[in-house]
Design goal:
Layout lengths: L1 H53 L5 H11 L7 H7 L22 H12 L6 H15 L5 E4 L7 E4 L6 H11 L7 E4 L10 H14 L4 E3 L7 H7 L1 H8 L4 H14 L3 E4 L3 E3 L10 H6 L13 H14 L33 H23 L11 H4 L12 H13 L1 E2 L5 E3 L7 E3 L1 H10 L4 E4 L8 E4 L4 E4 L13 E6 L5 E6 L3 H11 L4 H21 L1 H10 L7 E3 H12 L5 H8 L7 E3 H12 L7 H21 L6 E3 H15 L5 H11 L6 E3 H13 L2
Parallel strand pairs: 1-5, 2-3, 3-4, 6-10, 7-9, 10-12
Antiparallel strand pairs: 2-13, 5-6, 8-9, 11-12, 13-14, 15-16, 17-18
GO biological process, one term: negative regulation of MAPK cascade
Protein name: Serine/threonine-protein phosphatase
Catalytic activity: O-phospho-L-threonyl-[protein] + H2O = L-threonyl-[protein] + phosphate; O-phospho-L-seryl-[protein] + H2O = L-seryl-[protein] + phosphate
């Protein structure tokens, strides 16, 4: 009996170990593919930023159009936003049965919204715009770093990413209670994208923010960014739900996002930020940054930044020799040093501030006249707009430095190694080690950091000697049963208490089975989804894989070793996955340890081939580029109508042709755009855009 018990115990331990190994491999697949997609997003926007830097508009019309298309909302003027948010002109029909809002909001309004969204009702566009208008007014009054105290409430509840999953928000409120004077909440960004009900989540959170401004706090996440929304779904969601007023609503959301606070501080001891920190993170700088100037954190406009540096240098009394990189005398440039009157003494702060504003404005007007920039263009961030009576003597930071501060706190991740390095996995932010955390906490007298930004299987995870806590509130993020969601509650002692959950009923049932000791169904379901996504990724890189395999097939036998297969796959996909462990799920067993790679790739193609019978090479290219193509389409589709006008296409083609050194006349561009407009309705929809891409790839 004793020997039998030992054997059973050994068998069970091996069984659990195998399940854990499968679970970890599945998780690595999901996370690697997600981060690779974020890399593609940043590379795509870097490409467009490069095009913008190299493109020289031939007329003011082209300059205005390109600015509107690719510099969407960099700086909205109040008059433009008031016109955009003209909710009073929108009539609500008598047939509308959804919730009706009146301001100031009351708790009953929030309850009505919750009930309406549970019943799949939609809030009328008038009320959405009105809510966004009031939310924006409130957010503009808030500092960059919100301060919360546990003295005024029993505890503070911190929630992580929700990503458009409304069921998770409902479950949090069901378990923990609605926001109230005794129930404070901090929602740590990434409310939108990926899920299908991002808009409803924002409406609910904004409503509670206005009802309980001292108890509800919202931080900005990396997905509260209109350039990210173009790729990950929020833009599409808004336009589908509000076809008539969607463009107005979307523009208001873009501006509201940039006014969200950047961080929250609890009892001066716990800092809550969405992503993380770097070795250059400076809370003093973050407190003073004009956060509304960074509508998209992904894009840093180098051309306009470089034109701003001389202005800052002049104000600080610095100078730079007018020489190029080779030491030759550079072309004449404008001197931004004051030429009219001598600067007054800084002892008289009011007089000095007025003189500074007037001097810089005169130089800006001169620049505008020389480069033919109209006054109607959006204003750039200038030092004069940052100067106030309270900070004339404060240091002046470049926009590049400010941008990096925000980028780091929204995009960074912790790592177990010491130091701080670029986050090449995501493509933005950095990786920071425990030593960076320790120095940061010591510098600002903090106990620990709370961040989100990363999906965790249990919904939360400590690292860096329990000094960094990751909290993630979107359960079933990758697949039903893939992960739990969680939120954390902090009392006056600042001891974290966690609550975990899974919102989906199916996942809940699977979890009950798991508690009974049979987690196979759960793991198999999630594992199947992960490997399906991985096979799609492999198929999308068929051509590159063939080239990599041939490098190991010197005799051209069509066969390579499984070890070489694993090395070649990683060299192409660069996902950092344990391919030798995964090969059992991806490659059929072979007797001699050799793989016929052409037949293996043919099997992948058979799995992915659609009912349209598209040839494998075309399908491969579309699988690899569809997400990028869709993002490019939405960028060109400046008004988010779902259609690209001839003018939008023509101006975009000029941008591309300037980069590719292709000379094409206006008549030639017109012929090109008409050939893509297959149904001859005067616009290009996404199907026509994709079809044109396929036809081009078919040509020999």
């Amino acid at each position: 009996a004793f020997k039998a018990a030992v054997l059973i115990q050994q068998w069970y331990r091996r069984y659990v170990a195998r399940l854990e190994m499968r679970r970890r491999c599945t998780w690595r697949i999901f996370q690697s593919i997600e981060y690779a997609c974020e890399q593609d997003q940043i590379k795509l926007h870097n490409f467009f930023s490069y095009l913008m830097d190299q493109f020289t508009p031939s007329s003011s019309k082209e300059r205005d159009f390109i600015s509107r298309m690719f510099v969407s909302g960099e700086s909205y003027k109040e008059a433009e936003l008031e016109k955009c948010c003209d909710y009073e002109s929108i009539e609500v029909p008598d047939s509308y049965t959804g919730p009706r809002l009146s301001f100031p909001l009351l708790p009953d309004h929030a309850t009505a919204l919750l009930e309406a969204f549970q019943q799949k009702q939609q809030l009328h566009a008038r009320y959405v715009l009105n809510l966004l208008h009031e939310t924006r007014k409130h957010l503009k009054q808030l500092p960059n770093i919100s301060h919360v105290s546990t003295c005024y409430s029993e505890e503070v509840t911190v929630c992580g990413d929700l990503h458009g999953q409304l069921d998770d928000l409902f479950l949090i409120f069901y378990k923990n209670g609605l926001p109230s004077p005794s129930k404070s909440y901090v929602f740590n960004g990434d409310f939108v994208d990926r899920g299908k009900q991002s808009l409803e989540i924002l409406v609910i959170l904004f409503a509670f923010l206005l009802i309980y401004p001292k108890e509800v706090h919202l931080n900005r996440g990396n997905h509260e960014d209109h350039m990210v929304n173009l790729r990950y779904g929020f833009t599409k969601e808004v336009m589908q739900k509000y076809k008539v007023h969607g463009k107005k609503i979307l523009r208001m959301f873009q501006n509201v996002f940039c006014w969200l606070p950047l961080a929250t501080l609890i009892d001066q001891k716990v800092l809550i930020i969405h992503g993380g920190i770097s070795d250059t993170t400076d809370l003093n700088m973050l407190e003073k940054i004009q956060r509304d100037k960074f509508i998209s954190v992904l894009r840093m406009k180098k051309r306009k930044e470089s034109s701003r540096k001389p202005e800052i240098q002049a104000i600080n009394g610095e100078s730079k020799p007018d020489t190029d990189a080779a030491g030759n005398e550079a072309a004449p440039r404008l001197s931004l040093q004051p030429q009219s009157a001598q600067a007054p003494s800084t002892a008289n702060r009011l007089e000095f501030s007025r003189w500074l504003r007037q001097t810089v404005q005169e130089q800006i007007d001169t620049c505008r006249r020389l480069v033919d920039v109209s006054e109607s263009e959006p204003e750039e961030l200038t030092y004069s707009s940052m100067v106030s009576l309270k900070d004339v003597d404060e240091p002046c930071w470049t926009r590049q430095e400010e941008w990096k501060q925000i980028l780091d706190i929204l995009w960074s991740d912790p790592m177990p190694q010491e130091g701080c390095r670029e986050n090449k996995v995501r493509g933005g932010g950095c990786y920071f080690g425990p030593d960076v955390t320790e120095k940061f906490l010591e510098k600002y007298s903090l106990q620990f950091l709370i961040r989100s930004h990363e999906c965790k299987q249990e919904g939360y995870e400590f690292c860096h000697n329990r000094k960094v806590l990751t909290i993630f509130s979107a359960s079933n993020y990758y697949e039903i049963g893939s992960n739990r969601g969680a939120y954390v509650k902090l009392g006056p002692e600042l001891i974290p208490h966690f609550v975990q959950y899974q919102a989906n009923k199916t996942a809940h049932m699977l979890t009950m089975t798991q508690r009974q000791g049979i987690p196979v169904a759960l793991i198999s379901r999630v594992e199947e989804s992960a490997f399906r996504a991985l096979r799609e990724k492999l198929f999308a890189h068929t051509s590159a894989l063939i080239s990599a395999f041939k490098a190991y097939d010197g005799d051209n036998t069509g066969r390579i070793t499984l070890s070489n297969w694993a090395t070649a796959v990683e060299s192409v996909l660069r996902l950092g996955l344990p391919w030798r462990m995964l090969r059992l799920q991806l490659v059929r067993s072979t007797e001699d340890g050799m793989l016929e790679y052409k037949s293996w790739l043919d099997n992948l193609a058979m799995e992915q081939r659609s009912q349209e019978h598209i040839q494998s090479s075309l399908l491969e290219v579309i699988y690899r580029n569809r997400s990028n193509l869709e993002t490019i389409f939405r960028i060109i589709d400046r008004d988010h109508s779902g259609l690209i006008s001839f003018e939008e296409f023509q101006q975009t083609w000029k941008l591309f042709s300037s980069h590719m050194n292709i000379e094409l006349t206006d008549d030639g561009i017109n012929d090109l755009v008409r050939s893509i407009d297959f149904n001859k309705d005067g616009n290009i929809d996404f199907n026509e855009f994709l079809e044109a891409f396929r036809l081009v790839k078919q040509c020999p």
